[in-house]
Amino acid sequence: MRVLAIETSCDDTAAAVLDASGVRASIVASQDLVHKPYGGVVPELASRQHVTAILPVIERALAAASVGLDDVEGVAATYGPGLVGSLLVGLQAAKGIAFARDLPFVGVNHLEGHLLAILLDRPVAFPYLGLLVSGGHTSLYVVEGVGDYRLLGRTRDDAAGEAFDNGAKMLGLGYPGGREIDRLAADGDPTAIRFPRATLKRGDYDLSFSGVKTSLRQYLLDGGGAPLPDVCASFQEAIVDMLVTPTLKAARALGLATIVVSGGVSANRRLRARMEADGARAGFDVAFPRFAYCTDNAAMIGYAGRERLLRGERHSLTLNAEATLPIGVARAARAPEAAAS
């Protein structure tokens, strides 16, 4: 089955084409320059930019895959979680194509796309431990299979990506902030400043990043003093510690051999280095999607959507966007006969 996939959950407009051979094309139009003057994503601007970009991005994806709409056999799109205005643009475009072409349609949870993104690059045996870490989400899941996810823990306040971006604002860095901290930290000393690591009394695998953010603010109010690369490296190290420690703890406790780290923050070089090194010492296989599949993209939505379409799942064209959609809500109904591969 050849699937056209669309992703517009936040500020990237993305489309991809996938079939039995894998990803035929994956196109992403970034809005970084649109939001840079504001130091973060402005929801209204994001949705308006999606309206302008969505059709050209779909056309580019089809052209890159050397196919036309007549060759598409199914359509998948993100329907949550995310910014409602942004989600609606991609979701309506996908439903419009499905309706006009009488094609099967399925909505995909954005979080599911991230958790399965590794499978675009390499086979990974189920079950595995999934650390999903991004600007809006930081959670640990046991991934039992496509559509089968068990939540172990999540952040109780800020996501790790939010902590990076807010820290970058305090430091007067550019946007996107997490990328700037990663760049500057490469030349810094991660032991220069001991920022606190949150230890929660309840919830073995829950996380918290508001404390380290507050600590950075207090450090700067007190006058700071350390070189900027050292501050960035130390702040980053605290966040990385709070991601690596509970992840390895969960993998040991559950006897899972494989750890998959995904989401936008999984592109952070220090997180990759620490997780791979610490995981290897503990005997785990640690896997990251390639950088292009860490940040928001439609290829990961296409993978999850194609798997669901192949086993006969469909959504009604009345499916609506859901800003706070958790994994497992609004499961698609099964068609009378599964689609042929």
Low-confidence stretches: 336-341
For the sheet with most strands, the description reads: 5 strands, mixed
Form type: globular
- What proportion strand? 15-25%
The strand count comes to 12
Order of helices and strands: EEEHHEHEHEEEHHHHEHEHHEE
Q: Give the termini separation.
A: 5 Å
Total domain units: 2
Instruction: Tell me the helix content.
Output: 40-55%
Q: In the CATH hierarchy, what is the superfamily of the largest domain?
A: ATPase, nucleotide binding domain
Essential attributes:
5-stranded mixed sheet; 2 domains; Nucleotidyltransferase, domain 5; 341 residues; disordered C terminus; alpha/beta; 11 helices; 41% helix
Structure characterization notes:
The chain starts with a strand and ends in a 7-residue tail after the last strand. It is an alpha/beta fold and about 350 residues long. The chain has 2 domains: about 5-115 and about 295-335, 2-Layer Sandwich (Nucleotidyltransferase, domain 5); about 125-290, Nucleotidyltransferase, domain 5 (2-Layer Sandwich). The chain has helices at about 30-35, 45-65, 85-100, 110-115, 160-170, 175-185, 210-220, 230-255, 270-280, 290-295, 300-310; strands at about 5, 10-20, 20-30, 75-80, 105-110, 130-135, 140-145, 150-155, 260, 285, 315, 335. It is globular and about 60 Å long.
Could you outline the blueprint of secondary structure elements for this entry?
Blueprint: E1 3-7, E2 12-19, E3 22-30, H1 32-35, H2 43-64, E4 74-80, H3 84-101, E5 105-109, H4 110-116, E6 128-133, E7 138-145, E8 148-154, H5 160-170, H6 177-185, H7 210-221, H8 228-254, E9 258-262, H9 269-281, E10 285-287, H10 291-294, H11 298-310, E11 313-314, E12 333-334
Parallel strand pairs: 1-4, 4-5, 6-9, 9-10
Antiparallel strand pairs: 1-2, 2-3, 6-7, 7-8, 11-12
Helix pairs in contact: 2-3, 4-11, 5-6, 5-7, 5-8, 6-8, 8-9
